[in-house]
């Protein structure tokens, strides 16, 4: 009988995916193999000549077939990587996208610079006596539409002074978020609440106002939804994608309430669709609440992240 080694399988699955038009064929082949063989991706390369057992071959065969028919590999293996963190994933939540890492990056930069500024002020006030304890300068963050909890988890894991409230309307998605938060030991700093946008946040009980509100909400318009790739449209939750005729429904509702929930010098950071920068800038300007509205492009040169600073009163 023919012996299938890791190397041979990796090459075969990659070629099969390429032939079937699956994008990132090599990466997806590596993800399937490393999941079935319980190895890290790098370990596939250090064990290239290892023969693969029959039961594992059968599993790989079934998964490869499903992936070639457009089923997302992250759902097939139940996990993905985001901001260098291993996260659980199920078809109840959106698969975190690499573009969203830019939002996390900007959020962490903002929180760090804010901490540095307030330390400088404290320093001046205390005439040189700076307190270094981790409890100082806690920054309150709200992550609306948290899904798998990827944004909240990445911020909390990389900024020790963040306390985060994350909300989502989908209970099954929140169960995945809870598992991810537990996996990374972030339960003490992230609170998950179930409900519509800001609704589940009771200001007096949970927090007064936030330093930063972040969100990657649903933003796909009706015409874009009809044209989505099969691997997105048929597998990812519609509630995580679709946001009305022009895709701006959820943004409108966030923008309507945000003033109440942001500190006077706080900021809002949103992931946006490639064609929404102009319309959203106008909507936000009309509130009169924000200055310094910036749109940043992703690595594909599409508008992707909107940041806005609240005008201090
Ligand atoms: C685009 S996904 C983003 C998930 C995650 N933040 C990420 O970046 O991968 C949008 C999320 O918004 C949630 N959602 C949709 N409508 C909502 C609403 N009205 N209030 C709160 N969450 C909502 C969906 O359940 C979904 O988890």
How many helical stretches? 12
SSE arrangement, N to C: HHHHHEEHEHEHEEHHHEHEE
The CATH H-level superfamily of the largest domain is Vaccinia Virus protein VP39
CATH uppermost class of the largest domain: Alpha Beta
Beta percentage is 15-25%
Strand order of the largest sheet: 5-4-3-6-7-9-8
Topology:
Elements: H1 6-19, H2 25-36, H3 41-46, H4 54-68, H5 73-77, E1 79-82, E2 85-88, H6 100-125, E3 139-144, H7 150-158, E4 162-168, H8 171-183, E5 190-194, E6 210-215, H9 222-226, H10 230-233, H11 249-261, E7 262-271, H12 277-287, E8 290-297, E9 303-310
Parallel strand pairs: 3-4, 3-6, 4-5, 6-7
Antiparallel strand pairs: 1-2, 7-9, 8-9
Helix pairs in contact: 1-2, 2-4, 6-7, 11-12
The protein binds S-adenosylmethionine.
S-adenosylmethionine (SAM) is lined by residues 93-94, 96, 100, 145-148, 150-151, 167-170, 173, 196-197, 216-218, 239-240, 250.
């Amino acid at each position: 009988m023919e012996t299938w080694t890791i190397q041979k399988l990796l090459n075969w699955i990659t070629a099969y995916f390429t032939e079937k038009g699956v994008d990132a064929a090599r990466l997806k082949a590596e993800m399937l193999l490393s999941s079935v063989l319980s190895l890290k991706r790098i370990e596939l390369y250090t064990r290239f000549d290892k023969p693969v057992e029959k039961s594992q071959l059968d599993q790989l065969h079934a998964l490869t077939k499903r992936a070639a028919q457009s089923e997302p590999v992250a759902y097939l293996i139940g996990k993905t990587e985001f901001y260098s963190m291993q996260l659980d994933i199920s078809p109840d939540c959106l698969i975190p996208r690499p573009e969203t890492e830019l939002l996390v990056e900007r959020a962490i930069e903002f929180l760090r610079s804010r901490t540095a500024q307030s330390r400088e002020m404290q320093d001046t006030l205390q005439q040189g006596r700076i307190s270094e304890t981790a409890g100082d300068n806690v920054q309150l963050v709200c992550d609306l539409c948290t899904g798998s909890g990827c944004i909240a988890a990445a911020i909390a894991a990389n900024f020790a002074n963040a306390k985060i409230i994350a909300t989502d309307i989908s209970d099954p998605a929140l169960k995945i978020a809870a598992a991810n938060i537990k996996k990374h030991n972030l339960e003490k700093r992230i609170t998950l609440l179930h409900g519509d946008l800001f609704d589940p946040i009771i200001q007096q009980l949970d927090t007064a106002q936030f330093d930063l509100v972040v969100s990657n909400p649903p933003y796909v318009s009706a015409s874009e939804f009809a044209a989505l790739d099969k691997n997105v449209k048929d597998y990812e939750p519609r509630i995580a994608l679709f946001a009305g005729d022009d895709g701006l429904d959820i943004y409108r509702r966030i923008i309507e309430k945000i003033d109440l929930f942001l500190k006077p010098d706080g900021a809002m950071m949103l992931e946006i669709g490639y064609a929404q920068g102009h319309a959203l800038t106008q909507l936000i300007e009309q509130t009169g609440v924000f200055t310094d509205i910036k749109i940043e492009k992703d690595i594909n040169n599409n508008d992707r992240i909107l940041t806005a600073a609240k005008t201090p009163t």
